[in-house]
Design brief:
Layout lengths: L1 H7 L5 E2 H8 L3 H13 L3 E5 L2 E4 L4 H10 L1
Antiparallel strand pairs: 1-3, 2-3
Helix pairs in contact: 1-2, 1-4, 2-3
Length: 68
């Protein structure tokens, strides 16, 4: 969930570097979570080192959860 909340902070795609900084995580950990979430269909690659949500409305849902 932390990874998804880190992605939800951006209005568009997120870079692996930004996600890693937000989580305080090393590159290999970010890559592992990225792979798992892509395989689960929650995020999708949008370019080299970039991802975005694959499910419409998920960003807004996660942002609302964070405010509650």
């Amino acid at each position: 969930m932390d990874f998804q909340h880190a992605v939800a902070q951006d209005d568009g795609h997120s870079t692996a570097g930004d996600i890693g900084r937000r989580l305080g995580a090393k590159t290999n950990l970010v890559a592992n979570y990225r792979s798992r979430l892509v395989a689960a269909g929650l995020i999708e690659p949008t370019g080299h080192g970039k991802v975005d949500f694959a499910i419409p409305g998920l960003r807004q849902h996660l942002r609302a959860q964070a405010r509650a």
